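Hi R.,

Here's the chain you asked about this morning:
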Amino acid sequence: MCIYMIKLGELFCGPGGFAEGARKSKGFKHVWANDIHADTCNTFRKHHPNCEVIEGDVYKKFIKQNMIKLKKIDGLIFGFPCNDFSIVGKTLGLQGSYGPLYKAACKVLNFFEPKFFVAENVSSIAPLNDKNQSSERFLNFTKIMKDLASSSKHGYHIYADKFKFEEYGVPQTRHRQILVGYRGDFFKKDNISYEKPASTTERISCKVALEKGVPGTNQNKRLYEKAKNKEPTNHSENVLKRLANTKEGQNVWQIDDEFGLPNVKSARMSHIYKKLDSSKPAYTVTGSGGGGTHVYHYKENRALNNRERARLQTFDDDYDFSGNKESVRRQIGMAVPVIAAKHILTAVKQSLKKRKKREKYHHDMMIEPFGKKLSFTAEIQLDLDL
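And the predicted structure, written out as tokens:
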């Protein structure tokens, strides 16, 4: 019995959230990946040593210098940088430096013509509704969808869904737009039907994640004690006093702060110096930001360490990250939660039409040490997911 492994390539791969989700889903194999940051690539290589990781700019290093040399793939994964679409940033959209990077994925789709792709970005990339079709957000999203749909000579049939990852066993309020595309000829020929995975009934609180571990992961007390990436964040005296005056679930604007409010614009509804609510999933773990953005413990007067943040992103406790503390923080915050990736890829795998094929397989094999060639014909059954 020969089981076909679905071969994946990934752009903007990060430290390996999707790759770990693919491994846990089973049936997938990452053959190559790309990211621009050295520490991120080192993290990915460490845990996926059989995957060829191309470090460098997606255009200059990957597309121009390496793409033609790489193995063919069945599916492409890409979470193009969200900086210009996130409501936390300046929302520059396609006018920013990061927004247009989806076009790199279009070039890769045109070259490899994989049977499917999965794309991930912040939920704010998509319009809330189609009532205002002249809005910049609507026009930007429409252009992205059209460009992806017209990639390759066959085009792609695309499903677009908003995911609330806290509904899928992730102990964190993290909302993302997921695009799943199937190559046009493949979609029609095999009558592909993709269904968004059903949400799980259980919501995992941040307390359960931090104190016991997230169900479905390799998180436990023994591994945590041995784990790396637990360096504490140094707080000023004022910050420590501020946190001491902040109750569980409150942020800095909900307390009588005698130490001076942070100089942050439009942040009263934000998570600045906000303590977690132990009974609920955490708020969104981010990869950057100054004081007040590190995610704060519900009971202790401190920011979470990177290992705890990795738990909220559902990485196993033995999944260590390369680089210094800030580099690791960035990697974790930019990653796709492993459990969420597993749910998405499992749904894609289930959508691919299974077929069984019996075929004659002729093989010439050299027998050592006799130096004679033995020819044989065998009938094998292939269970194909593609």
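The domain at 2-202+336-355 is CATH 3.40.50.150 (Rossmann fold).

Let me know if you need anything else.
M.
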